[in-house]
Design goal:
By secondary structure, the protein is mainly α. 85% of the residues lie in helices and 0% in strands.
Length: 101
């Protein structure tokens, strides 16, 4: 796995462990505990979205680099079509990561 994937998995696992610890160790009322857990879940979700955004940027940069190297070996029209397909799929993935936008 790449460093970004490992980081995202670590963020998710860490968030889940934090949520579980919060439930088990909370000395406050159930209502306050639920509010804290909701906030922690929001923080973890935001961190995952940020990591995914950074990964997306690196992925686009890498794709552009590959395109530059491949241009001398493959017809430009083929590369342009492949890049358009990749960008469309990337937008679909981004929509799945952040369905509210």
């Amino acid at each position: 796995m790449s460093e970004n994937t490992n980081f995202a998995v670590g963020m998710i696992v860490g968030g889940l462990v934090g949520l579980a610890a919060g439930i088990l160790l909370a000395p406050e009322s159930g209502e306050k505990t639920r509010e804290k857990l909701k906030e922690q879940a929001r923080v973890v979700a935001d961190d995952v979205r940020d990591s995914a955004g950074e990964f997306t940027i690196k992925l686009k940069d890498g794709a552009e680099e590959v395109m530059k190297k491949a241009q001398s070996k493959v017809p430009y029209e083929t590369l342009e079509s492949s890049l358009a397909d990749a960008e469309k799929k990337l937008e679909e993935l981004e929509g799945q990561l952040d369905p509210g936008s």
